[in-house]
Specification:
This protein is α/β, with parallel strands linked by helices and 246 residues long. Helix content is 47%, strand content 15%. Strands 3-2-1-4-5-6-7 form a 7-stranded parallel sheet, sandwiched between helices. The longest helix is centred in the middle third of the chain and has 29 residues, at 103-131.
Length: 246
């Protein structure tokens, strides 16, 4: 039997990149998936490619808006009848040095990553705790562990996701709801490949395995945390970095 047979998962930012890879792996392992994304057309296209209405649905969602997250989770309940896994993956970057970063750039990144993850975690937990089971997987970043130049906003938000997740894990453990975190390093996506070549090469030089990761390599770790393979894990932070900055 596949690892997520009969389960329903919601993935924010699921139309592309790491979120899309997670949705693909989940469907392959038997899950029904609702893809939430700020771009409804991209979400619809992804859902169609994943197999259509019987296994994948799309919903427009701004994770900074609690009502949007409610609607996203409601779509999972209305369409598939349950909510078993929540992956808070949606994110943006607005890189700039501390000297040049605007207040708007700081607020945008913190709102999407940190408030968005808070919204997704608390809203999913409210449903899961009533059923005495559920797995929440929050996507942080290596930037939240070590801090990165030009990312005071992103590093702060990603570090905050770790603290948020650990606190939530303690609150929800006795309700049967697990909360764990993934910290990806340099993963080959459209967002990372758009960075200047010099920055890419600097990051590559820090990776003992000598290569960037692929989205599916994060997705399989998300599968582990979403499934019963990790049934005695909560509050854990798993790095998927090729050994970078260990």
């Amino acid at each position: 039997m596949a690892l997520l047979t009969g389960r329903t998962a919601v993935v924010t930012g699921g139309a592309q990149g790491i979120g899309r890879a997670i949705a693909e792996v989940f469907v392959r392992e038997g899950a029904r998936v609702v893809i939430g994304d700020l771009d409804p057309q991209a979400a619809e296209a992804a859902a169609k490619e994943l197999g259509g209405p019987s296994v994948a649905r799309a919903a427009a969602c701004d994770v900074t808006v609690a009502a949007d997250v409610d609607a996203l989770l409601g779509a999972a309940l209305d369409t598939f009848g349950s909510l078993d896994v929540m992956v808070n993956n949606a994110g943006i970057t607005r890189d700039a040095t501390l000297r040049t970063m605007t207040e708007e750039q700081f607020d945008q990144v913190v709102d999407v990553h940190l408030k968005g993850t808070w919204n997704g975690t608390r809203k999913a937990a409210a449903i899961m705790r009533e059923r005495k089971r559920g797995a929440i997987v929050n996507i942080s970043s290596l930037s939240g562990k070590v801090g990165m130049v030009g990312q005071t906003n992103y590093s702060a938000a990603k570090a905050g996701i770790v603290g948020l997740s650990k606190a939530a894990a303690k609150e929800l453990a006795h309700h049967g709801v697990r909360v764990n975190v993934i910290q990806p390093g340099l993963i080959r996506t459209a967002m990372t490949e758009a960075m200047p070549r010099k920055a890419w090469d600097q990051k590559m030089a820090e990776i003992p395995m000598g290569r960037a990761g692929e989205p599916h390599e994060v997705a399989t770790v998300a599968l582990f945390l979403a499934s019963e393979l990790s049934s005695y894990m909560t509050g854990a932070v798993l790095e998927v970095t090729g050994g970078r900055l260990m």
